[in-house]
Amino acid sequence: MKIRLKGRLHYAPGLGYGLLLSVLPWILLLVFFLKLDSWNLPTFLVVIVVIIGLVGVAFAMVFGKDIFNFTKKKYLERYKDDKMAQHYAELTEGIVILVIGLLAAFVPVIIESHNDSKNNSSSVSEIINDWD
Question: pLDDT for 79-100, tens place per residue?
Answer without folding.
Answer: 889 999 999 999 999 999 999 9
